[in-house]
Write a structure and sequence with these properties.
signal; 5 helices; 32% strand; TGF-beta-rel; alpha+beta; glycoprotein; binds 2-acetamido-2-deoxy-beta-D-glucopyranose
Length: 355
């Protein structure tokens, strides 16, 4: 199915069609990639280095390495086909309503996971906390991280927000990232009604000699990295059929043709981060009678050429189509400005045949 829309997409590149037709075809192709509309990043965040690292491991050259499992993320040792980095959308809570005296900072953390599709299963969720400060004043801080279970409503008296402690730890170095395992929490958050975010509290130690919150004000950012597995994308690859040695092929006979798709040329450079383009290829050529084994014809195609030789007016020759395709990995901004690394099946033609 994807090939049909990809074929449409490619012909957009090859032919010059009208604007509306082009937009329609683009929409079709985007939908097959899982986008309701063309992403248009408003304030694109920086690309997390971990995503570059995984991307480069996978796409070292223009085409993915052979035989690698794109449905397993080696970096984290978990199954998965989509890696997303969600920016935090929570707010700082003004510490005015009589906080404990050593509370330096209180913040809500919120990550909108609505970009995940229904079929996806969360195999990993990891929260990263970072401060921009490199210098270090010698204080020791205490950190508490809670999952918010229920918000207190305004005017409901003294009823406190109900929350569950996820982590409590002490730290000194501000320039190092801190990571928290939120795999189970992300699973719960798949239901948006249950996603009320987290509460983060940072205290300075009372016994600390440097008695202030200096440095912690440089709170830089928190992000949530998730790995999900889309079982529809990750079916076991079919067993490769083997064909004998190929004799010389005439140039107008069905075969794979080289086609490099450059994302800039279709105006996608502002949301597709990498690759810049890739070798998509296409199939073109005739499937003449008699259909030889080298044209990778199906039994049906062989029968069809035979029928064609009897009734050339009514029965067409078989078509030259892809018989083997390979996936690519793409790094892009989605419709919510999240950075996503995702694996797409059937994006490049490897072999053609008469079908
Ligand atoms: C999450 O993002 C979706 C899609 O952008 C939006 O419709 C929804 O309102 C957001 N939810 C929250 C709680 O911000
Ligand atoms: C994170 O937590 C999940 C569920 O509790 C666990 O299965 C997984 O091994 C943990 N991951 C790491 C990296 O510790
Ligand atoms: C048929 O398949 C073989 C190997 O599976 C491949 O090398 C060849 O290019 C294919 N034929 C065509 C016409 O692409």
């Amino acid at each position: 199915m994807l090939w049909l829309t990809l074929g449409g997409f490619l012909s957009v590149l090859v032919l010059i069609s009208t604007d509306t037709e082009m937009r329609l075809r683009e929409e079709l192709f985007l939908r097959s990639l899982g986008f309701p509309a063309k992403p248009n990043p408003v304030s694109p965040p920086a690309i997390p280095s971990v995503l570059w690292k995984i991307y480069n491991q996978r796409m070292g050259s223009m085409t993915p390495k052979k035989n690698q499992d794109l449905c397993f993320v080696e970096e984290f040792n978990v199954p998965g086909s989509v890696i997303r980095v969600f920016p935090d959308q929570g707010r700082f809570i003004p510490t005015s309503s009589g906080p404990p005296p050593n509370l330096c900072l209180e913040k809500r953390l919120f990550f909108n996971l609505s970009a995940m599709e229904k079929e996806e299963m969360v195999t990993m969720g990891r929260l990263e906390l970072r401060f921009s400060q490199n210098t270090y004043y010698g204080q020791t801080f205490d950190l508490r991280l809670y999952r918010i279970l229920q918000m207190s409503l305004k005017g409901m008296g003294s009823q406190k927000t109900s929350r569950k402690l996820l982590a409590a730890q002490t730290f000194r170095l501000l320039h190092k990232s801190m990571y928290f395992n939120l795999t189970d929490v992300c699973q719960i958050w798949r239901d948006p009604h249950k996603n009320l975010g987290l509460a983060l509290e940072l205290f300075h130690r009372k016994e600390s000699t440097v008695d202030d919150c200096q440095g912690i004000q440089t709170f830089l950012y928190t992000t949530l990295l998730t790995v999900t597995l889309n079982p529809l994308q990750c079916k076991r690859p079919r067993k490769k059929r083997s064909y004998g040695k190929l004799p010389f092929l005439a140039s107008n006979i069905c075969k794979k043709r080289r086609l490099y798709v450059e994302f800039r040329e279709v105006g996608w450079q502002n949301w597709v981060i990498a690759p810049r383009g890739y070798m998509a290829n296409y199939c073109y050529g005739e499937c003449p009678y008699p259909l030889t084994e080298m044209l990778n014809g199906s039994n049906h195609a062989i029968l069809q050429t035979l029928a064609h030789s009897f009734e050339p007016e009514d029965i067409p020759l078989p078509c030259c189509v892809p018989t083997k395709m390979s996936p690519i990995s793409m790094l892009f901004y989605d419709n919510n400005d999240n950075v996503v690394l995702r694996h797409y099946e059937n994006m490049a033609v490897d072999e053609c045949g008469c079908r």
